[in-house]
Structure formats: C-alpha cells, structure tokens
C-alpha cells in the first residue's frame, strides 16, 4: 500500500497536515539520524548533530523570507499565545505603557486580554460587535498617540480573517510593529522590514506544535529586563542561540525539514501561488452555490488559510451530515471551531491543489443530493 | 542490518537515549497513527485521537507513580528551568515571600538565581564552596521560619549528586515542598505524598525535550493569580487539562510510549533495581581502579543517573583520548558538562545493564593500556 492511499485529506486548522515527503524523511532516519547511530530525539542540543540542524533551519528561514541582517531568529516554547504575556513583558517598561491592539478575531482578542496584566490596552479597532466578519477601514483606526507598540494578527485561524500585506502602511510612522503570523506564516513572501517582531506557532505551515518562531529586530533586544522569565526572555534567547536551556530539538528538526521542502517546491512565491489557487477555487465555488454554502466574511478580508462557511445559513443537521459524508471520502477535520460552529477548511501549504479539487467535487455532489 | 547494530551506546545526559522499542513503535505509525490516516503530529489536540493519548499518558503516570487522588498532572512547555520563574510566580503572594532553596548543584543554584526576581531567596545550604561534592548534614540546614515553600533538586545532572528519599523528612513540618526531579524522574518509586509539587523535564527518563511534567497537590492551585502568564499558569492548565492552548502533542505521545515501556518492563521497582545495578557496578569499578579513575562525589550522595569522574585526577589529554577511543567502541556522549569538565556517564532507564558492562570492559582495557 503506498502512503498516499491510506493518508487522510486533512483540512485541520492545526496541528495541521505535513507534507508526506517530510514525514517519510523523518520516519526513515528516526532511529539513526544521518548515520550517527542515534535518533535526532536522542542527540544533545549542544552536540554537532543538532548544531547543524539549528543552523540550517535558521539559514533556510533567512533564505525563504529574505530576513535582513538586523533581525534575529529565536526558537521558543510555550506556543504563540504564551507570547501574549511574553511580548509586553519584554517590550514594556512598566504596566503603564500603552499598547495598541487591532482586534480582528479570537487571537488578537486573546492577546489584548492577556496583555492587560502587563500594559494598558488600547483597542485601535474592535471587530467583535461585527462578529469578526469584517475589518473597519484603516482610516477609522484609533491609535494611541504614544503606544509602546502595535499588535495585530495577520490571519485569524478561528474566524477566517486575513489582513492585507499593506496593513502596516496605515500605522503611525516610527511605531514598533508586532505581528502574530501563526497561521499564515510561510504561506507567502513577507516584507520583514515592515515589522519589528513577527511570531508564529509552527503547527500550521512551519512544522509541529511545541515550537514558536520569533523574528525580532535586534535593536529591540535592549528593552528586555533581566526579570523577564527565561522562557520568553528575548535577550537571553538571542545571546544563547535559543540554547540557554534544552530546546524542543525534534520540533526544530521538523521545522527544518519543512523549510527544505518549501525551498524544493519553489519557495514562498510558489506557496502563495498555490494558496491563492486553492482558496480562490473554493471561495468561487461557495459563492456560486446559490446560498447552499455561504461564507459570511467580507471578501476583502477572506483568509487564504482558513475558509469558514455554513450550509443553508446554519443548518446544523445538514452540517453534521456533511462532516460524516466527507469522512467517507477520506476528507477530515472540517468542523468549525467550537466557539463559532459551522465548517472550516484549512488550506495550509501541505494541502495540494488536487486535494482542494477533490473537496469541491465532494461539496458539489453533497449539494446536489441535499438541496431542496 | 538490525537496529541494534548501528545504534550508539548513548550515555548522554539529555536529551538522552530512548528505548529502541519506543522508537520503532513511533517509526512504524509515523504516517498513520492507529489507522487514522494521519501522523500523530497532524491530529488536532482536541480530537479523539489525541484525547486518548493524553488520557492514557496521564493514567499510566498515575499508575506507575501511585499518584494520590488529591494531585493533578500538568503538561507544560518551556523546560523544567522555565519553572524557576514559574513556580514562585504561582506560589508566592508577593516578592517579599521567602523561599528556602537547598543548593546542591547547578540546577538548584539556577532555581535560586532565577527565583530572586519573584521572591526573597534563603539558601538553606549552599554547597558551591565545597564544589558541590557533598551535602551538609540535614541537622545543619538553616530553614527560614516562615518560607512560602522549600525548593530542592533530587538529582543534579551536571554535578552527579542525588539526594536520598528521606530528604523531605528533615524539613519543618507543614512546609510546602517543591522538588525538581528532572533527571531521576521515573527512575525509582517515589512517595508522592511527601511532596506538594514535583516537576521534571521529560528528556532524561520520560521522553524527549519540549515537555515538562508537573505533579501538583490540587490544594495549591488556589494560590495562582490570574496575572500569571498562561505558559505556566498552573490553575489555567489544570482547569483545561493542559489544553488551554496547543500542547506539544508529539512530545506528549512519546512520553506515553515511554510509560507503556516502563510498565511492560516491570514498573519503577524494576527501573530502580536496574539503576542500582548499573551505577553500583560502575562506581565499584571506578573506586577499585587505584585512582586511575576517580569520582570525587561523597559516596552518600552519588547519583544513580549521572556518574561524573576524572582520569588521573584531571589529565585532560588522557580524558580526550578516552572519549575518542570510546567512540570506536560505539560509546558516545561521555564528556562532562562544559562547566565542570572531566567525564560523565548517564545511566538513564534506556541504558541496559549489558551496555554498562560494555562500558566497564572498555574502561578496563583503556586503563590497562594507559596507566603508568
């Protein structure tokens, strides 16, 4: 049996699917990493085998994202949301510092909620009253005159909202820009120099859970006080190449394999091309379904990564049947987040254009069989 | 080629060796976890597959350690040393709270150093002036009259010092007892009820790096304030079964496989029996080598896990030759920690009695060829 036959078409929102070739490579050398007689899980984080892994992973990340020299890369633990406390702890001088949050969905809301213990929260925009279906025009955003930094989430995994690349252009000049790119990281080229701090949990497009990647402007590192806990002490992590304590070695290794796969496939330009093809095909089909399927998100802000939609404007019985029927076609993990219900299809890098076509074929036949 | 032939005899201090059978099991199902068509790395942390993994892992941990009902188990990220900040942040009401530290090596020293930002540090005993070669008699320990808790490290990985199980019996009655068991966790039965909080990084005897296990008395959870960052907010982790954010799913899975292996091999009694056999054989050989090899640690406190020794009282040239020659016998990772030099052999659960015998055979022939 080839691996393709038994593998699910996994549209999960994360931990998400991983390219077969990455898993096959990890499987092949799981007991004997590059001939060293040990698993990559068993090597010392300070030994020559892991040293090579972490350096290659860093340099490949620099390569695919064209990260300028004045930025450092940190590998942290705790998940991206742990940085909702960690970032203000590093960047704010006191809890009286004001931080601007653009609240466009569950994750930027979470950042503003956790942040309140370490800074004064100013909501530049709060889309919750609009059920996170759209984003107010940047001309309406209400920045604080003296915020320590601006925080926003580039892609809201739960609500299916993605911000345009031009977003930071609307910020007051000279402000520190912090961006949570967890769920669209490595899905497109990014102009890193528009940001001072980019962070992302790996378990969407960049590997598996248990590792958080931080890209930080080196000049920001001077802000970290020695009292910031080591788990997210940016200065300490930078000074020690993220090895001040034992990092999640296997998790970094998988990110390294994913980066090699991205390079081999054509880099972030190709990832973006595919993500546009996959998501446009799906949105186009949904919009053309005469309301059988409906995506409520403002077209300008629809996510290429997480497509949220309802059947017959929220027919839960039919949605349940949809999930069940889909599984017979090996299509899995398409339930919406428990906080919003409905359906959600995540189109991360490891999902192919063909797999998305198979989904649309299934959605077509399901519609034909179930529409009144 | 069978896996035994190419596998190194890996005496590394951590990330350490993992039983072959655990690696083979992980390898076998790496692309298709229990027939679900997905890797365990790709399943949702809230889905039925992972739900089963985390529950089994918890209940097997309860089983092997006979953990009483009034304790909870938390799976955290960040490494054990992240809790050097996290524990006082959870347990202390204010930075004026006094915490008693017994400083017996690098890790308890680290805990007292990081702790100073969150509590007043009282060193009950500080063995650094004695180069951490021994521990003063408990009758000499100077506890604070009103410490919020007592912190000690059961096994010092760098310095090779292990505390006797009777240690907490010497503490003032009613005091909260916190124990760092990172490097001897799951190497012997433990009377959990002597402790209020046990914590351990998994990468020694309990799995791979990227996961930290906390066993906490439930009554302690009321101390956690909402401002404690989620990454080590014990109350939040407990209330959410460690799933308030995406946990390191693969890392928890490996701990689960290791626990099943421990149970199959005969539980912690058998792990202890083996560790005593392995370490006594090695210490006996070292002590009988007429000073060619020498372990400077007070015999009462010698670690079963990490055997530190020198050749000819610190002949670095010969020690280097020893490491090189050992590698020709497939014996690896025996250099001492960079802060102390010399040699260190770690005898974690996955190291067999036979592998230790092979090491002693090599040490014998090396001695015979190199003694004057």
TrEMBL record, chains A, B:
Arranged from A to Z, the UniProt key words for this protein are: Amino-acid biosynthesis, Aminotransferase, Pyridoxal phosphate, Serine biosynthesis, Transferase
Please give the pathway this protein is involved in. Amino-acid biosynthesis; L-serine biosynthesis; L-serine from 3-phospho-D-glycerate: step 2/3
Q: What is this protein called?
A: Phosphoserine aminotransferase
Quick check: keyword Transferase in the entry?
yes
Q: Which HAMAP family match?
A: SerC_aminotrans_5 (MF_00160)
Q: Which cofactor does it need?
A: pyridoxal 5'-phosphate
Please provide, in alphabetical order, the Gene Ontology terms of the cellular component aspect for this entry.
Answer: cytoplasm
| Database matches in NCBIfam families | PRK05355.1, serC_1
- The answer to whether the entry has keyword Amino-acid biosynthesis is yes
The upper taxonomy is: Eukaryota, Amoebozoa, Evosea, Eumycetozoa, Dictyostelia
Name the family.
Answer: Belongs to the class-V pyridoxal-phosphate-dependent aminotransferase family. SerC subfamily.
Domain of life the protein comes from = Eukaryota
* Gene3D superfamilies reported for this sequence: Aspartate Aminotransferase, domain 1, Type I PLP-dependent aspartate aminotransferase-like (Major domain)
Species of origin:
Dictyostelium purpureum
Stretches assigned to the Aminotransferase class V domain: 10-358
One example of a Gene Ontology biological process annotation: L-serine biosynthetic process
